Amino acid sequence: MRYIRYAFLAALAVVLVTVALANREVVTLHLLPADLAELTGLSFAVSLPLFVVIVGAIVAGLLIGFVWEWMREYKHRSAASTHRREKEKLAREVDRLKTDKAKKDGDEVLALLER
């Protein structure tokens, strides 16, 4: 399984290097379209190689997806935490009841063995 992972990472690296070499041209990214930039006075632009823009968009998409899933799964994590606390509470109650029953019956050896 380890070799399959290494092979996949090597293939991914080859693809990323190939895309980077094929897209070295410098492009200009504008914050807003030209007409809207004139209207608002916000004319921010940056020049970057195209492969940086492509890889940056992929990374941004992954981060947005991870955050989205983390927020979506909150209810499941909350429910699991509630169930875990309830399970621990019930386990403590069962242990207490076993101990009380053994003490009531007067057999301390059985009480120790049941623990």
Describe this structure in words.
The structure is a single chain. With 115 residues, the protein is mainly α. It has a domain at 25-72. Helices cover 78% and strands 9% of the residues. Strands 1-2 form a two-stranded antiparallel ribbon. α4 packs antiparallel against α5 (108-114). The longest helix is centred in the C-terminal third of the chain and has 32 residues, at 74-105. It is elongated and about 90 Å long. The two termini are 43 Å apart. Keywords: Cell membrane, Coiled coil, Membrane, Transmembrane, Transmembrane helix. Residues 80-107 form a coiled coil. This is Lipopolysaccharide assembly protein A domain-containing protein.
Condensed summary:
Keywords: Cell membrane, Coiled coil, Membrane, Transmembrane, Transmembrane helix. By secondary structure, the protein is mainly alpha-helical.
Main β-sheet, spatial strand arrangement: 1-2
- Helical content class: over 70%
Distance between the termini: 43 Å
Largest sheet: 2 strands, antiparallel
Radius of gyration: 31 Å
- Estimate what percentage of residues fall within beta strands: 5-15%
Would you list the SSEs in sequence order as H and E?
Answer: HEHEHHH
- Give the averaged pLDDT, no decimals: 88
Count the E strands.
Answer: 2
Derived from helix and strand composition plus strand pairing, the structural class reads mainly alpha
Q: What is the global morphology?
A: elongated
Count of helix runs: 5
Uncertain residue segments: none
Label this structure with key terms.
115 residues, mainly alpha, two-stranded antiparallel ribbon, 2 strands, 9% strand
